[in-house]
Amino acid sequence: MSQELSPDRQALLARIESMDPGELDTLPVGIITLALDGTILRYNRTEAGHSRRHAAAQIGRNFFREVAPCTADPLFEGRFRELALPEGHGTVEFDYDFAFPWGSERVLISFLRAPGVPRIQVVVTWPAQQ
């Protein structure tokens, strides 16, 4: 269930939406911009470093099927799909355990979507930033 965007989340979303890829790479949190079908539009350097992936190689891939199949579950993808509905907007936040070949990492996930915008910003806050 999504919540309306608070003023601070609205400001964060506006900031992320206006940043070019170089600016996104300077953020201390992971940023993954997903089209409503799960296609990766942007993937910042911070996220690439934590997930041990090449950022540019993720663009155009389906996040849930090709990049992070561990997230194809009701907790992650299910919440994304609810927010991706035509009337969906707001924020959804939850703790999540990313499963990697080298171990599991507990992160804070924030989905952010403005009304009528055809993409969702995924903010991944890794333990060192929490």
How does this model look, in words?
The structure is a single chain. The protein is an alpha+beta fold and about 130 residues long. It has one domain (about 5-130): Beta-Lactamase (2-Layer Sandwich). About 30% of the residues lie in helices and about 30% in strands. The chain has six helices and five strands. The chain has helices spanning about 5-20, 20-25, 45-50, 55-60, 65, 75-85; strands at about 30-35, 40-45, 90-100, 105-115, 120-125. Strands 2-1-5-4-3 form a five-stranded antiparallel sheet. A hairpin with a 5-residue loop joins β4 and β5. The two termini are about 25 Å apart. The model has no long low-confidence stretch (mean pLDDT about 90).
Give the beta-strand count. 5
The CATH class assignment is Alpha Beta
Strand content: 25-35%
What gap, in angstroms, lies between the N and C termini?
A: 23 Å
Domain module count: 1
Rough outline: globular
What CATH architecture would you give?
A: 2-Layer Sandwich
Provide the low-confidence segments as ranges.
none
Based on CA atoms alone, the radius of gyration comes out at: 13 Å
Structural class: alpha+beta
- Examine the coordinates and then state which fold CATH places here, giving the name of the CATH topology: Beta-Lactamase
Q: Number of helical segments?
A: 6
Biggest sheet layout: 5 strands, antiparallel
| Average pLDDT over all residues | 92
Element pattern in H and E: HHEEHHHHEEE
Helix content: 25-40%
Q: What strand line-up does the widest sheet have? A: 2-1-5-4-3
Report the CATH superfamily.
PAS domain
